[in-house]
Design brief:
The complex is a heterotrimer. Chain A is 78% helix and 0% strand. By secondary structure, chain A is mostly helical. By secondary structure, chain B is of the alpha/beta class. Chain B has one domain: P-loop containing nucleotide triphosphate hydrolases (Rossmann fold), CATH 3.40.50.300. In chain B, the strands form 2 sheets. Chain B has a 6-stranded mixed sheet, sandwiched between helices. Chain B has a 4-stranded antiparallel sheet with strand order 2-1-4-5, with helices on one face. In chain B, strand 4 and strand 5 form a beta hairpin. In chain B, helix 2 packs across helix 3. Chain C has one domain. The longest helix of chain C has 35 residues. Chain C is globular and about 65 Å long. The chains are: A mainly alpha, B alpha/beta, C mainly alpha. Chain A: Keywords: Membrane, Transmembrane, Transmembrane helix.
Chain lengths: 255, 251, 250
């Protein structure tokens, strides 16, 4: 409990984390901007085209902002200590070391659990209030399962970042791998010939939320081969494998 | 200093026993043994790269020894539950997050070891940083950072204190202040292990001396003994380390 | 001064890792080509993407990191101060860094992209795998555009590194330019998806070659304009860096 209080204070007493939170919540404003441009475009379109007007779900469009931002917060939560040498102080204060990483996971993951739902549900509210009279917007009850699962991914990104940071000890390396997992590998996988594109596409991080809720993915760039349960397990593993490796490695390394 | 000590006769004692640390092929610390007793300021001397900082990291459980062990209060540091109450250390004054305030820097340390936040204000007052407590530590001068590091070491009111080069960057006032602080901490019955390259300062501050070179023990004795055999601590140091000035596995 | 900046860049292990990661594309491209070749044997002909285009993001992000770290590593360790005392003319220092970063990323990019291209064609042989449909002359604008995009990203990384002084912030911004914004642009309603999308950094490469941006997005800019916009990214980042670097206390 003491270690948890210490890690919470560490996170909230650094300016860059305030900036990261602001950027994450700024995704809501980005959604408002997209919605406003969609409204302007609808109003200027001829009546014949209005009936068929479609727009992507706003929360799907902007979610990447809090995902990446919180992922970077996770990375920096540990790599900034390695960069400044503060990690020695942290480990001298808590010689067991693992409680330090565990407490960081609770703090960073907990912030992800707050930021994700706030952004996702606020963005859905934006699309409901601003777009519903012009575009077809799925009802809240229909969207709810997907809204919940995609909002949880923000915490997974945060923990993934923290785990990568703990293993690699370098901000540049950890962010590069995070970006690789989120963007570069899915792009490469998307270019693979069938059946590998769909097989590997099904285990990409971005494919998992919709696989968990069993939504129709025929138009998606990802595959949809996993059952909801398997997809949920895969989502947990994205956070658990790097964090688990971090917990294993952190004990024995000289600092 | 909480609860009954596990080894009453070893309370406050730092024991370094046949300690060896290799990085690859280089031996940073090589079969090093010495003991630091409470109630004294013990000076820890040696040329650059002699293994002083490595030894301190080994005592604090930050690096794992290749062989041998280091004990504080009769126990390995890594087995201490709330170590700030037993051992305080200043290793690197620059180990701070630049945008975190001095107050918050000490507060998270206090929280991690269950120390009353009132203590944070006390140590800030004690080291003379109370006026800049809410300022970002990144903007501090090296001297102010040293004072903040000393405040961190004193936070848990520990019986054993380790300071690695605390005098660097301090103005003459600060140097005098450190000397008085070290001596009063020792006078209170605490154990103080202090490394420094300033021989004249060390001669005024320390009672006992441990000199290492190339990771090995050169001499473990009292300042009085050295100044009697050589005409000053500086001459003693230069004579004793003459063969050891070589840059080993410095980290 | 260029020599000393070159020595600095080359003596950091992260530069070698980053170039190594970029060079991995040659291996990935060869594996890809073998795999595509076996599929073509089985099916007669297929339409596969060229490996140097499919794996381009890996080259781009790895070498953009070289640009970022060329300056943020100095801020992180405090060596920026000795650098500035050794070369007090800050413009010259930054110009030297930019020259070295441009050279140290363009040459590996050139090598990786053209070797991957050559290897993938050698492995494909005369099988119809899609990416070997055109002649080398047809492919050349896309190859050169890809190389240019890497140089630009590295310089943008350098500029952002100077402005933010933080590895995380600079890498985050590069990722924003390379992935996040281009990912959001297609969701804008028409015609803004094309108008905005056409200016996005990674989308300029296909436009330089006069191709569509993607199956979802048409191009808008003629090749010469796309080259100019691409160069503009580097120019804006570097001008911002020069302005900030000259005035700021180290």
């Amino acid at each position: 409990m003491n270690v948890l209080a210490a890690e919470w204070l560490k996170i909230r007493s650094i300016r860059s984390n305030h900036l990261i939170l602001a950027i994450s919540l700024g995704a809501i404003l980005l959604a408002v901007a997209v919605a406003m441009s969609a409204i302007a475009m609808y109003d200027s379109a001829p009546a014949s085209m209005r009936a068929g007007a479609r727009i992507a779900e706003l929360e799907e469009v902007v979610l990447i902002v809090p995902q990446l931002a919180m992922g970077i917060m996770g990375v920096l939560a540990i790599t900034s200590e390695y960069a400044t040498g503060l990690i020695r102080t942290s480990f001298a204060l808590v010689p067991g070391r693992r409680p330090v990483l565990a407490a960081k996971s609770v703090v960073v993951g907990g912030l992800g659990l707050v930021v994700g739902p706030v952004v996702v549900f606020a963005t859905y509210a934006v699309s409901w209030w601003m777009l519903e009279s012009r575009y077809p917007v799925a009802g809240f009850a229909d969207r709810l399962p997907t809204l919940v699962t995609s909002s949880l991914t923000v915490a997974v990104y945060a923990l993934l970042g923290l785990g990568l940071g703990a293993v690699l000890r370098s901000a540049a390396g950890a962010i590069a791998i995070l970006v690789g997992l989120v963007y570069v590998i899915p792009m490469i996988v998307g270019n693979l010939p069938e059946p590998w594109s769909e097989r590997l596409g099904s285990v990409m991080l971005g494919a998992l939320p919709r696989e968990i809720t069993g939504e129709d993915l025929t138009s998606s760039v990802y595959g949809a081969l996993l059952s909801p349960f398997a997809a949920a397990v895969a989502l947990v593993l994205y956070a658990a494998v790097p964090l688990g490796s971090g917990l294993l490695l952190i004990r024995g390394r000289d600092v | 200093m909480c609860g009954a000590p596990a080894f009453p006769d070893r309370e406050g004692v730092i024991e370094v026993k046949q300690l060896t640390k290799r990085y690859g092929r280089a031996r940073a610390v090589d079969d090093l043994s010495f003991t630091v007793q409470p109630g004294h300021v013990t000076g820890f001397l040696g040329p650059n790269g002699a293994g002083k900082s490595t030894t301190m990291r080994l005592i604090l459980g930050l690096d794992t020894p290749t062989s041998g062990e280091a004990l504080v209060n009769g126990r390995r540091y890594a087995t201490l539950g709330r170590p700030l109450h037993e051992v305080g250390a200043l290793l690197d004054a620059n180990a701070l997050h630049p945008t975190r305030s001095a107050y918050n820097h000490l507060l998270w340390m206090a929280r991690s070891n269950g120390i009353d936040p009132v203590r944070v204000a006390e140590v800030l007052e004690q080291v003379g940083l109370a006026g800049v407590a809410r300022k970002k530590a990144g903007g501090f001068s090296l001297g102010m950072k040293q004072r903040l590091g000393i405040a961190a070491a004193l936070l848990g009111d520990p019986g054993v204190l380790l300071f690695d080069e605390p005098v660097n960057g301090l103005d003459p006032d600060g140097v005098r202040w450190i000397r008085d602080l070290m001596r009063s901490l020792a006078a209170e019955g605490r154990t103080v292990l202090l490394s420094s390259h300033l021989m004249s300062e060390m001669a005024l501050t320390a009672d006992r001396i441990v000199i290492v070179g190339r990771g090995r023990l050169i001499v473990e004795t009292s300042v009085k003994d050295l100044t009697e055999r050589y005409d000053s601590l500086e001459s003693a140091y230069l004579a004793l380390t003459a063969g050891s000035v070589e840059y080993g596995a410095a980290r | 001064m260029i020599a000393s900046e070159w020595l600095k860049l080359r003596s950091v292990s992260s530069t070698r890792y980053a170039i190594g990661a970029a060079a991995l594309v040659i291996v990935l491209g060869a594996v890809w080509s073998f795999y595509v070749g076996t599929l073509a044997d089985a099916r007669g002909s297929i339409r596969a993407a060229a490996p140097e285009e499919g794996f381009l993001p890996l080259v781009q992000i790895s070498l953009a990191l070289v640009g970022v770290l060329a300056v943020t590593a100095e801020y992180g360790t405090g060596t920026i101060r000795p650098s500035l005392t050794a070369v007090p003319r800050r413009r010259a220092l930054l110009a030297a860094k930019a020259t070295v970063v441009a050279a140290a990323t363009t040459l590996p990019a050139l090598a990786v992209i053209f070797i991957t291209h050559a290897v993938s064609h050698l492995i494909a042989g005369d099988r119809a795998v899609g990416y070997n449909a055109g002649s080398f002359g047809d492919d050349l604008p896309l190859l050169l555009g890809s190389v240019l995009s890497v140089t630009v990203l590295a310089l943008v990384g350098l500029g952002l590194g100077v402005v933010t002084r933080s590895t995380a912030a600079a890498v985050g911004s590069v990722v924003g330019l390379l992935f996040v914004l281009p990912g959001i642009a297609p969701y804008l309603p028409q015609p803004w998806n094309v108008r905005v999308g056409a200016w996005m950094l990674p989308n300029l490469v296909p436009q330089i070659a006069g191709e569509r941006i993607s199956t979802r997005l048409d191009g808008l800019l003629p090749p010469a304009a796309a080259v100019a916009v691409l160069a503009g990214y580097a120019l804006v980042a570097l001008v911002a860096a020069f302005l900030v670097f000259e005035r700021r206390d180290a």
